[in-house]
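Retro notes (design track)

What went well: tokenization of the new backbones is finally stable.
What didn't: we kept losing track of which sequence belonged to which structure.
Fix going forward: every design gets posted as structure first, then sequence, in one message. First example under the new rule, 393 residues:
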């Protein structure tokens, strides 16, 4: 028996009740991008019941191109985040059974974002100067600071509305391994400040044509409580992870990992794990929605990612065995039609497919950790401290 958990990074479905507290009132990732491109063509998602979900949300917006179906193939619902924050780590940790209150520390958007003592110690330990030290889009950071960072052989340090300490450098000037080592140094320095992630952002190219490579790495704050990955692993259930999952969970509770850098490679690896492994959890994050489209405010590219994933699911789902379960959800929103370039506080969709099993309306789930509780139930291990299993409903 195999459980496949696929996180569509940033694919929110409508503003959460507390969206206004985050400055996100009016956001709705899927409905808004669908409207912007004239409708989505995703027959697999539609047959699974994606079009049924907006009606569950107060003031939910229909998804142009998708209609509700009378008998969806999957059980469908929507999840509301309980933890404080709207970043990748907070969302994934809650999916894995944790609750983060208070949330990770955030920093001022204007220069200087990070405390002087943190920056001074980072420069001292890495032996290089820094530039930036403010909230800025990654692509804008390269446009404005990339050339000078090459001249000075300096780090570009920046943050965002999330709790992140991001480090960019040109890989022809500062070797990739040196960047990774600097991130490990930064991770230790950032722990006392409770910063969610240190992120390596290597780039290449010349002024006017800089581009980020797929060699990104995330260095995550380590939680005090074991996640569902660790709980399964400790009970002898294999855990296979794809994409940036290994980084998000600090490489803990993992049997085998493949660090992919884009949706297509991640989807291929999910198929490979499924074909090669007899049982266990396969857990993947599909990053392109967020990294390439949400932050860059590209509705067309976002829609194309969703339609490509729909094609993947049409091919993958018929392979599933009767005792398998496929869970598809998201970790936060990132409405590409919304103001700014940051994540948005949203409900996330939930689809649960089990072959030859009647589908159900799972309603609104209070907490992403219902996913972890459901996995605990599915693999017959002890219940986790919070959440309700939707597989027992």
């Amino acid at each position: 028996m195999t459980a496949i958990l696929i996180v569509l990074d940033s694919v929110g479905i409508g503003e959460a009740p507390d969206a206004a507290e985050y400055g996100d009132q009016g956001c709705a990732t899927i409905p808004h991008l669908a409207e912007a491109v004239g409708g989505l063509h995703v027959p697999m998602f539609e047959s699974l019941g994606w079009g049924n979900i907006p009606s569950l949300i107060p003031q939910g917006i229909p998804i142009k191109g998708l209609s509700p179906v009378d008998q969806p193939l999957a059980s469908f619902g929507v999840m509301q985040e309980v933890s404080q924050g709207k970043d990748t780590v907070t969302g994934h940790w809650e999916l894995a059974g944790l609750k983060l209150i208070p949330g990770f520390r955030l920093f001022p958007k204007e220069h200087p974002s990070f405390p002087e003592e943190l920056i001074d110690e980072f420069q001292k330990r890495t032996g290089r100067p820094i530039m930036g030290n403010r909230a800025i889009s990654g692509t804008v950071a390269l446009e404005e600071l990339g050339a000078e960072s090459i001249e000075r052989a300096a780090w570009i340090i920046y943050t965002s509305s999330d709790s992140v300490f991001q480090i960019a450098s040109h890989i022809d000037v500062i070797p990739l391994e040196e960047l990774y080592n600097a991130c490990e140094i930064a991770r230790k320095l950032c722990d006392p400040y409770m910063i969610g992630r240190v992120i390596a952002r290597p780039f290449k190219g010349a002024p006017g044509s800089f581009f980020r490579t797929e060699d990104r790495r995330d260095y995550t704050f380590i939680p005090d409580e074991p996640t569902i990955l660790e709980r399964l692993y400790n009970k002898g259930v294999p855990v296979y992870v794809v994409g940036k999952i290994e980084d998000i969970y600090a490489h803990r509770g993992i049997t085998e990992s493949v660090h992919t850098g884009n949706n297509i490679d991640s989807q291929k690896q999910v198929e490979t794990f499924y074909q090669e492994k007899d049982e266990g959890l396969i857990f993947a994050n599909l990053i392109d929605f967020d990294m390439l489209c949400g932050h860059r405010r590209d509705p067309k590219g976002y829609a194309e990612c969703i339609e490509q994933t729909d094609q993947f699911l049409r091919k993958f789902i018929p392979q599933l065995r009767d005792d398998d379960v496929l869970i598809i959800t998201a970790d936060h929103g990132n409405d590409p039609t919304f103001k700014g370039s940051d994540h948005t506080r949203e409900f996330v969709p939930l689809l649960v497919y089990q072959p030859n099993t009647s589908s159900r309306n799972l309603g609104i789930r209070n907490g992403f950790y219902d996913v972890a509780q459901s996995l605990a139930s599915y693999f017959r291990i002890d219940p986790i401290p919070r959440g309700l299993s939707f597989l027992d409903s």
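Added context from the reviewer: The chain has twelve helices and 15 strands.
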